[in-house]
Records
---
Amino acid sequence: MNKLQPKTVAESKTEQVQIVLNADINGYGRLFGGKLMQWIDIIAGVVAMRHSNCNVTTAFIDKLQFKAPAHANDVVVLVGKVTYVGTTSMEIRVDTFVEGLDGHKRAINHAYVVMVALDENDKPTPVPPLLLQTEQERAEWEAGQRRCDLRKQRRVDFF
Ligand SMILES: CC(C)(COP(=O)(O)OP(=O)(O)OC[C@H]1O[C@@H](n2cnc3c(N)ncnc32)[C@H](O)[C@@H]1OP(=O)(O)O)[C@@H](O)C(=O)NCCC(=O)NCCS
């Protein structure tokens, strides 16, 4: 197997479903933000592992926007996909929804997570290029490239 053979977005796209349990809610009946962040980190890690076929580590949580709450017993659906890859890093977008009994999905969170692939010595290692197949994937890539440049600039500026 050629480890650096290009891969499509669809090849690593991942969906994860959770039910909000009593242990996941805060004192006023809403899903803990930290619990949702854990689920987001896990799905982003799985997407990155599937794209790179490597162990990965979380380098940066770029955008984490809580748009609406989830409550006890809600069905929470997380969808993760690669939006941009650098040399050893991958940007993963995670969209989180609450799914109603009628199947309608209401968006509650959008996040971008940067994962870095690690070799057997725990050092960053190259990841496969991303094969873009749709207009939406191309638009996400261009936006991901801009976010990557901004992240680099912020690291230089210590901001
Ligand atoms: C992430 C980590 C592996 C990067 O290692 P490093 O020695 O700085 O490696 P490099 O400078 O070669 O960077 C490797 C890649 O990570 C990216 N990167 C590093 N720090 C980053 C940051 N803060 N934000 C976004 N990307 C970052 C680089 O841009 C580079 O990407 P590229 O190869 O696609 O251009 C290292 O900082 C680390 O292990 N951090 C701890 C991660 C961790 O434990 N996470 C779980 C927290 S509980």
---
Amino acid sequence: MIMRRRTRDQLDSLALEIRSCRRCPLSKDRTKAVPGEGPEWAEILLVGEAPGRDENLAGRPFVGRAGSVLDRCLEEAGIDRSRIFITNAVKCRPPNNRRPKNDEVEACRPYLEAQIELVQPKVVILMGNAATKAVLDLEGVTSLRGRLFKEIYLVTFHPAAVLRNGNLREVFISDLLAAKDKVDGRWPPARDEDYSD
Ligand code: SF4
């Protein structure tokens, strides 16, 4: 219990630091930085790309249209959003929702690494190319999705991609279910032969 409280305090301190961070140019145009949110004991940690317009205003991750898609898919997969930790590769909104630049991702990476280190989830779901590049230095989500790296990182599509292309929805939910299987110690998931290390 004491350990958990200490981890919570460290996550909260990190969030405070992120909210006043000026390490990269994205700090100039942000309204609110979005550190991420979730319990310190979360077994699943989700990583997206960057805050969008709604997140920039609210200071919370995935509260816009892509967030609605994420919420519905989580619900369908039987995952309670309040029990997972959700964050992004960069914590401040890039202008016009452009993809974050490499130096911005680099500047922000220590925050993401610290969050993963503190939460110690059983699976980290990397949603989309930016998150996958930031953590694994790999690109090409279409070919990487459904694969587990370093026994903890599961690659899948970003909810915004699911919003644009409804055909990805089933695959995205399948990957969320696979993450649940990983949490329960079942990998590769028995119900789908396509999942492998
Ligand atoms: S994106 Fe990350 S590194 Fe850049 S200012 Fe925001 S919190 Fe700091």
